[in-house]
Predict the 3D structure of the following.
Amino acid sequence: MPRYSLGGGGGGDAAITALNNATANELVTVGSTTTELDAETHLTFDGSDMKLLEAVNDGNPSISIGGADAERLVIQAKFDSGAQTLESVEFATAAASGTADRGKMVFDVDGTDIMTIDDGGVNIGTGSLETATIDYTDGDLAITIADGGGVTFAQDATMTAGKNVVLGDGSSVNISAPLLAGGDHTYSGTTAQMLAGGTIAAFDLVCIHTTTGEVVEADASAIGTARVIGIAPAAISDTATGTILLHGFIRDDTWNWTTGAVLFLSETAGAMTETAPTTDGAFVQAVGIALEPDVVFIKPSLDLIEHA
């Protein structure tokens, strides 16, 4: 094996005659000839930190590690100036062509697979997924997983067609704040998006039009408009689609109901009343109960009684 020495001193077989472009803290590699060393502009070590700077490899510096004996690899990206942001940390595997593990990453502890990432997705093994948030790239914190348990959705959760929300034995859908203390004109419960067959005002009761199948303002004066199915939390224009609360809680601070009173469909289109209709030919239908002067539990009865 040949030996090398700077400037030919020390009796080496091959003298190093050049150290190219060297500045402080640059690491040195063997040059293009056996008599040259090259100082690497983008690879530095100051005694504590080794840096592979972004100006190499088209701005995407990489570290390749071969062998299976390393117990731990930690890669940290840090920008002290605060003017730059880390866009991604990428791991790429390139197993031999045709092998089952090509493109696969496995995180394991003492031989137990905790998480596997491959072209089929992310699989959590015998371990558990513990994180504070799962975020989208726009930073809206759509899903939050609490350390102590519980998942919070900050955006709508949409089920694919044919899929269900399945409740196990003893489980329930829990409405935690039925009195809606958070603010005026709020609601919670079961809703549907429905097409309006006429102009519907906010907080008006609605029924299904017997001919068009669209929702219209309910009215106790006639059987065709007396079958309340829910209430509109917001105004809906004619021929527009809007939200109908079918079953649940709704608040309007202009209401002044008697707490605990049963509310009925009024002979005034869309309105509720604490007094059941008394006009001959009108229809009596209970539609809910006042939980507070400004909060109503909407639960339209299927029973209709014609006043005679």
About this structure: Residues 4-59 form one domain. The CA atoms of residues 132 and 298 lie 36 Å apart. The longest strand covers residues 241-251.
